[in-house]
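Protein modeling request. Please complete all fields; requests missing the sequence field cannot be processed.
Requester role: graduate student
Desired output: 3D structure, token encoding
Chains: 1
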Amino acid sequence: MTHILLVEDDPAIAMSLKVTCKREGWLMTWLDNASSVLPMLRSDAVQDLSAIILDVGLPDGDGLSLCQHIRYASDIDQLKNTPIVFLTARSDEVDRILGLEMGGDDYCAKPFSPRELVARLKSIWRREQLLLEQTTQIATAATDTANGSGHSLAEQVVVFECQSGMWQYQPLNYSLTWQEQKLELSNTERKILLTLLQAPNQVFSREQLLNAVSDYPDHRLARTIDSHVKSIRKQLSLVDESLDVIYTHRGLGYGLCPV
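Delivered output (259 residues):
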């Protein structure tokens, strides 16, 4: 069953979303404070969350810090790729940019329609499923060609080869490795890098990359792509700082090969 964790201190919003989730056939767990979130995520009760909705402004903390803990805490590693959507009453664009840079997948600005939030969640899941299907097809074709028979999804690995070397992606657990080193990437960073890997000779504009990771791209936030690329480069430098893997094409965007 689809299970949503909502962290929101406004009971009216929580009740409205709970009714909407029930109509969708989803289970929703509601917490109204920040301090209860991590202990709950470390328990056995929420091992299979479909998404987490975080209010940016909470009475005892903030959703941005919670997002960072969820993305990088080693003791809840099984949830590091769970989609996170922020709820924010702040109109400041900087807050929205920070949320996306810290590992959020999307945001809804208050006031919002519960149907809009549901649509955004479905969009995130649809893109994840599409990426899974695409990479699984590539992996299946590769294993069939190499071995004459198919393998289970858990065994399937998508291999990308370009001038920076060999990359391997396991669709089942979202694991992306380069030079046999696993990369610690957020959902958005992983999607950006996979988009570049599928067309290494292409130059992608910021808007194209934003469209690749969201069905609701806010082009005012296209600058977040720069921050995500910077974060990806940092991860890659930990593996091999001597190589320039992602090239900046001034006035155009980003690509994996010089043009």
